[in-house]
Amino acid sequence: MRDPHPPEPERAAEVRRRFAEEARAERPDLALLCVLVGAAGDGALDEAGIDAAEIELDRLAGMLPFRPGGPREWAVATAELLGERCGFRGSGADYQRLESSLLHQVLLRRRGLPILLSVVWMEVARRAGAPVYGVALPGHFVVGFGPPDQQVLADPFDGGRVLSGGDAELLVAGATGAPLDPGTLSPADPLDVVLRILNNVRAWAAARPERSDVALWALELSLALPSHPARLRYEWAQLLVRRGEFVRGAVELEAYADVVAGVDAEAAERVRGQADAARALLN
User: Fold this and answer.
1) Residue 31: which of 131, 111, 134 has the closest Cα?
2) Is the pLDDT of residue 9 over 80?
3) What's the Cα-to-Cα distance from 84 to each of 75, 160, 161, 183, 261, rounded to whole Å?
4) Residue 223's pLDDT band (boundaries 50, 70, 90)?
5) Separation of alpha carbons 42 and 21, rounded Å
6) Could you read off the pLDDT of 176-209 as tens digits, one per residue?
7) Helix (H) or strand (E) run with residue 255 in it
8) Does residue 37 contact residue 221 with C-beta atoms inside 8 Å?
């Protein structure tokens, strides 16, 4: 199956504009941001498709029981609907597919990465009135239900399996080799969730140099977020040069050099040298 490809430039620019606008809203809509990530990566996703993704989340939410009880009951009810009845879950093969990071495709395929499946869990349960949020465990994203003193964790990648404290520790140890830090159990900020999704897309593209188009749109959306690591601008400038946009890449390298000059003059000079080298490629 052919991997998704980004839309034409005019459509891509409109998607980036909407993404940046939503990311700067007072209360960013996580589902909409994730669908717009999909629109940036899949030119086949039109406005009707964006609406269809939102409608599907609403439809699934309508299938959850009304106020099933406390945090554990919410976790179990959501797992029974999404994991058992609807078949949402993940496998190792999903890490090799770009569609696993695109929400509209996850809703269609019912397969995805842990963080995208968690977005489905969060958005469906939230619409039904559940006290739900994302939990960014190192190396494995899950969802949490209820306040800290009653928190119940569930793993959407494993069909929504409810986790004990020991289960969470094992997940983290298996992914990182480090012990579980209780601080990672707090609710994840929606924009941090989106940046983590885009980081996954960039990692997918990094393993496939022929798909620099994917790395480009993922970086451009990352840079549209109100807060992002400054080094992403350097990565973006380097990518522009590799894609043959020498002048634009040189300009961005110089802009990054100006940013870092105040803290590391030597590094700034090296980056300016890279900008000069990029311009020399035009000769």
Assistant:
1) 134
2) yes
3) 13, 9, 10, 31, 55
4) very high
5) 20
6) 888 888 888 899 999 999 999 999 999 999 999 9
7) helix 246-260
8) yes
